[in-house]
Amino acid sequence: MVEVKIINQSSNPLPAYATDGSSGMDIRAHLEKELTLASFERCLVPTGLFIELPAGYEAQVRPRSGLAIKQGITCLNTPGTIDADYRGEIKIILINLSREEQVIHPGDRIAQLVIQSVEKCNWIAVQALESSGRNEGGFGHTGKK
Q: Which of 4, 105, 111, 130 counts the most CB atoms within 10 A of its CB?
C-alpha cells in the first residue's frame, strides 16, 4: 500500500474506500451551498483536497456509477489524471447529461479517486512494426456479436 500525503481544507472526511474490494476512493464536493446543474451544463467542483503523490504514481479521477445512472451526472475528461508533481486543489469536472436540472449538495460523493503506478517509456524510432493477428483492425472490426 502506497502512502500519500494529503491536506483536507474541507469539513468532509478524507477520501475512503467504500468496501474492502473497492478500487476507488469516494471524494466529496467542497461547496458552501447547493450547486444546480442545468441539462448539459458542466462545472468545476472543488474538493478542498491537495495531495502529494510519490514519484511514479498518478491519481485517476473517475465517475461514480450511481451518480451517472440515477442523476445522469458524470465526469468529463475521464479518467482525469492528477500527476505526481501537481500540488493544487483537486477539482472535478462534472456534466449533467440528463434532461432535468440536477443538484449537487455540499459533501455529496461526486467522483472516485484511483491511485495507480505509472510506467514511463523510451521511444525507439523504427521504419516498420512487427505484424500481429490484428494489424490495423480497430473501431469495431470484430463485429457486434
A: 111
Peptide bond into 15 cis (omega under 30): no
The angle formed by the CA atoms of residues 113, 15 and 93, to the nearest 5 degrees, is 45
For the cut 90, the answer to whether the pLDDT of residue 93 exceeds it is yes
The residue with cell 479517486 is 113
Residues 7-43 pLDDT 10s = 999 999 999 999 999 999 999 999 999 999 999 999 9
Interval 49-69 mean pLDDT? 97
Cα separation, 33 vs 105, in Å, equals 7
Q: Is the confidence at residue 100, as pLDDT, over 80?
A: yes
> First CA to last CA across the chain, in angstroms?
40
What is the per-residue DSSP string for 43-79? EEEE--EEEEPPTTEEEEEE--HHHHHHH-EEESSSS
Residues 110-141 have pLDDT tens digits of: 999 999 999 999 999 999 999 887 777 777 66
Alpha helices by DSSP H, listed for the chain, are 65-71
Q: In the numeric block, which cell numbers belong to residue 102? A: 440536477
